[in-house]
From TrEMBL:
Domain Glutathione S-transferase UstS-like C-terminal: 178-268
Pfam families for this protein: GST_C_7, GST_N_2
The protein, known as: GST N-terminal domain-containing protein
Origin superkingdom: Eukaryota
Domain GST N-terminal: 21-97
InterPro entries: Glutathione-S-Trfase_C_sf, Glutathione_S-Trfase_N, GST_UstS-like_C, Thioredoxin-like_sf
SUPFAM superfamilies in the record: GST C-terminal domain-like, Thioredoxin-like
Length: 273
């Protein structure tokens, strides 16, 4: 079988060591879970829009004002000719096209009623995926709420963003333009950082409770991983890559270590091609 091409975001070189973009990680976990042959094409931040345009894939996400948010991942499957340009839709495609591959069903029925009660920041990208009622609807809602919870605390990681040194100034200017704030203005004081870190711990308490329903752990369904775990795991990868080692160690220990256990358990699905 010819491998799927998986377009991931290249940050500071080597990309394989600094990869920490949450949505591409959701897709990488899903590809490895399904044991679908693939190869990674690493795309620098400044080239994402042109790559999507060349693939004739419009933006799958928008900002709250309706403007397009050009990002990755994208997968291109030569076996079917399909090109899919959103992390959630990638997983749906893999399940529908390769239902019995790898470890089985990415979307087993389960209770996914977690809700994040705060509104998303006006600049946060919003997914446009649409699915019919059923298990996929629950997963999509879970994805939206988990994205919102982790996005609310991205100020904690911006200073640790692993820009490619060769394009750092251009990349910072591009990202500042997206959010309407100079990059330097995003820095926070140590006091504010401590407050945010504490609030982040409290916010993740609601999500952590879902990981205590099955004491066999470490996944939401005990010993059986699902795409819901990859949603959370993708964000943990981002925070691992951008927080200090000491802060990420602290995060892993929150709420009796449920997120640390999840992160470590997902290593089996984290291999690079």
């Amino acid at each position: 079988m010819a491998p799927i091409t998986f377009y991931d975001i290249a940050l500071a070189p080597p990309a394989e060591k600094t990869s920490c973009s949450p949505n591409p990680w959701k897709t990488r976990y899903a590809l490895n879970f399904k044991k679908t042959p693939y190869k990674t094409t690493w795309v620098p931040l400044g080239e994402i829009s042109s790559v999507r345009a060349a693939l004739n894939i419009p933006a799958s996400r928008t900002f709250a004002d309706g403007s397009p948010y050009q990002t990755l991942p994208v997968i291109s499957d030569p076996a079917t000719g399909r090109i899919v340009g959103d992390s959630f839709e990638n997983a749906v495609y893999l399940q529908e096209q390769y239902p019995s591959s790898g470890a089985g069903d990415l979307f087993p029925a389960q209770e996914l009623g977690y809700e994040f009660e705060r509104d998303l920041d006006l600049h946060a990208p919003i997914a446009e995926a649409k699915v019919a009622d059923g298990p996929l609807k629950a997963y999509l809602k879970f994805n939206t709420n988990v994205d919102a919870a982790f996005t609310a605390y991205t100020q904690l990681v911006l200073e640790g963003f692993p820009f490619d040194p060769d394009t750092a100034e251009e990349d910072k200017a591009m990202m500042s333009g997206r959010i309407g704030v100079p990059w330097e203005a995003l820095r926070i004081s140590e006091e504010k950082r401590a407050e945010l870190f504490k609030a982040f711990e409290e916010t993740l308490g609601g999500l952590a409770r879902f990981y205590t329903r099955d004491p066999s752990g470490p996944f939401l369904m005990g010993s059986r991983a699902s795409y819901a775990d990859f949603i959370v795991g993708g964000w943990l990868r981002m925070y691992k890559g951008m927080l200090s080692a000491e802060e990420f160690k602290t995060l892993k220990g929150w709420h009796n270590g449920v997120f640390g256990k999840l992160h470590e358990a997902l290593e089996v699905f984290a291999q690079m091609d």
